[in-house]
Design goal:
This protein is of the alpha+beta class. It has 17 helices and 25 strands. The chain has a five-stranded antiparallel sheet with strand order 2-1-5-4-3, with helices on both faces. A five-stranded antiparallel sheet has the order 7-6-10-9-8. Strands 11-20-19-16-17 form a five-stranded antiparallel sheet, with helices on one face. Strand 12 (384-392) and strand 13 form a beta hairpin. The longest helix has 38 residues, at 321-358. It is elongated. The termini are far apart.
Length: 720
Amino acid sequence: MESTSSSSPGSPFDMVSGALGRYIPRGAAARAAGTSGSQGGDDGRPHVPAGAAPGRAEQILGAVNLDRDLKITRSNLDAPVFTGVEATTGSPFVDLLPPWDIPTVTRRLRQVLETGEPHVARVQRLRRGDGSELVVSMSILPAAPPLEGLTVSLIAMAKRLHLYAAETAIGTSLDIGETAQSLAQSLLAWGDVAAIDLDLAVWTGEVVTEQPQRRIRLRRAALVPDRVWPEGYVTPGDDLPSDASHLLSQAIRRDDVARAIVLPDRAAIERVLGSARLVRALVPGDRAACVAYIPLVLDGAPPVVLGVAEVWRRSGRLFDDSELLDLQELVARTSHHVDLARQHQREHTQVLALQRRLLPRSSGDTIETASIYQPATPDSAGVGGDWVNSFPLPDGRTALVVGDVVGHGLGAAATMGQLSMEARALLSAGLAPDEVLEHLDETVTLLDDAESGLAAGYSALGSTCCITVYDPVSHHIALSSAGHLPPILVPPDRPGGPVAARPHPGLGAEFALREPFDVYTFAAPPGSLLALYTDGLVEDPALSIDEGIGRLSDAVSAVHPWDALDQAARRVVSALAPAQQRDDMTLLLARVIGYRKEDTATWRLPARDDAAAEARAAVSELLGQWRIRDHTRNSVLLVVSELVANAVRFATGPITVRLIRTGHGVLCEVGDTGNGRPRLGRDGLLGDRGRGLRVVHGLTTRWGVRWTDTGKVVWASVGK
């Protein structure tokens, strides 16, 4: 073996050695490797006693430099533990690996070359010249300048050190797949193949209980090493055959106590499995001849079995008692990490279900919408309070709402759901956007009190929201915002830009900062494109927020009128997404269509006793032009007559009558300057006189009231 040690203080070897030295004190490396007095190491060479002066004999770290062709340029594998590992200068690094690991490790090496992102702490086997193997923890790092290529650090994994390193590595992720994969990688120190099979309830995040009589279903969560497996063998994501799940669960639960079991040879394996089908599904190839099954047990009264860890070896390598104790210790130490990942998976599922529930379902007759929600990370720690919603209001208008609740996780998602549903209910009840924000502001403040907010470790103060309501008849949009970034409007005849609106503090601002919410009304001609979004889409450390909004304006302006909105939304998000996403990104695109002029009509009438007759005559003529069926025509005439008569009787004028022909029937609106709310009384009368709303209620599919700056509008929908 050729080896070159470098005394340069800036060499990659010294950099890695120095980093390791901060965690392993002098003299402790040999002790961590199992040194005690006169005992020898695994390679047959004596270790330095624990109290001896530090020297090369206690070194467990080696380093190898590679060029861009993945060939060894120099190495430092002088420690006795690396004896037999032939790191020859000029030879490919993959010559040190078992054949089945070469594709995976080569891919990892090239990935670090291309991205510069290190790949840390992979449990790996190296081939010695005598055919034996050495288990190491391998990290792949970009070479320190002025060198090019890679530096591969190798830490010889003595069993006790490996137990510590494995437990530390396994606890770094709350993703159940990554947790299972880390555990399987760590188990490779004791075998040639490792697999983790989890109870399906664990995999899906459900509550796991100790129920010995229930039928166990196991799903493969992890399998290492990464190679081409025989046809029919169970790989990650596959469910084990039902009889195999039952067999394994019964084997490890002998006498209702979870125990490890070992099948020492191929004959015992085939005898226990009992069929060629199960052998194909559970045995990783012809060379596998010995297996240890170790249950993943969650401590409790009684203990709960989460799944099974499998460690397979080739023939001639039986498990001894000390190895089984080490395996059980590692699995026992890390089972709680699997359960934490299960709980996290449950929260993740709940959060995503809530997010999906709040996304717009479909577009209406007068507006077309498409939305994108992209969390910062695939786990629930990155699923935050961004939300968008679009829904038709009962009076024919359409509400478009976007919000950004402070924080991430279940607390933010719960607040997001509450604010979203409250906004929808209030808008559907006829409140204006500014009035809705006033209610949301009060809700956020109430949620932050000592009992329900801060005591739970979560505060929604500072959350933002923007509400827009589109009127398909006037082709105008009313907007009110609480601390949110302005929407982008792209008219059909000119480039787009942000809607000019005065900034307002976010929801739950201090009393001294609170101001009345403003309502901005702007024209949106048919064919206009409106974009609502959250800050994650336009924030970039390299750009100002105005530049980010400008980029979004350009991207939305590039959407062609004939483009499908779903595809356009994906293109916009893809064009603006930063290389390293740090926040959730949400986008709602809306293409306004509105009603045609010939489908609407408006009349202004004085508040006189003959107003109802005048309205009835005008509406009758229009319904004849629209060729409305007699049954619907008679219902519309009676509804309009009653609403106008009530407006004359209980409100003040002038009175506005508007009729809209929709795809579902006719929408009637009667506006006045009164501020009283019409109510359907128990006696069927409006207030204390007349039949009023009782007639309207019986002839329509829905009716309601919305408030305006000058009074109110009573609307009623008559079906075909």
